[in-house]
Amino acid sequence: MKTADVPYAADAEVSLTYDELQVLRMQYEKELAQSHVTIQTKFNYAWGLVKSPIREHQLEGVQLLADIYRSEPKRRRECLYYLALGHYKMGNYDQAKGFNSQLLEREPTNLQALSLDNLIDTAVKREGYIGMAIAGGAAAVGTLLLAGLIRRAARK
After folding, report:
1. Cβ-based neighbour number of residue 58 at 10 Å
2. 78 and 43 in contact (C-beta within 8 Å)?
3. pLDDT tens per residue, range 21-63
4. What is the spatial distance between Cα 118 and Cα 135, in angstroms, rounded to a whole number?
5. Measured distance CA(37)–CA(139) in Å, rounded
6. Are 67 and 45 in contact (CB under 8 A)?
7. What is the 3-state secondary structure (H, E, C) of 100-146?
């Protein structure tokens, strides 16, 4: 399925405003101070953090979602997409692919997950091309150095 066939995984690009994230943070911290954070509050805050363009926020969001995923079996399905999204945004494509694949196993027609799958695949290919370009450049430099050394040795 081509990317154009599914709706764009808008969550990959759209962040909450500072004020919107602050509302979620204040609710989470209020409940934390009372020693009882509801799963919904924790999920909402994690969701907002994962959507952030700031890596530290994304990491904290993924950690909170992972806690929910481990401790609340009934909430695992709704955590999978945002765990995949968080890892994608941080460049952890293997983990992103793993969580997204779990979601697609459960919901093979989930359009957001299909779109995110395309984004992950594209990022992996792009990263591979960059790696190949770097390796090719290093090989070219190595070849030039080796040729220079051979010429120098041949002159002596």
Report:
1. 22
2. yes
3. 999 999 999 999 999 999 999 999 999 999 999 999 999 999 9
4. 26
5. 54
6. no
7. HHHHHHHCCCCHHHHHHHHHHHHHHHHHHHHHHHHHHHHHHHHHHHH
CB 84 within 8 A of CB 100: yes
Helices and strands counted in the chain (H then E): 6, 0
Place of tokens 């091309």: 129
- Exposed (0-12), middle (13-18) or buried (19+): which is 105, by Cβ within 10 Å? exposed
Please report where in the chains the tokens 């694949």 appear, as a residue. 101
- In 3D space, the residue among 119, 69, 114, 112 whose CA is nearest the CA of residue 91 turns out to be 119
* 107: alpha, beta or left? (left if phi > 0; alpha if psi -120 to 50): beta
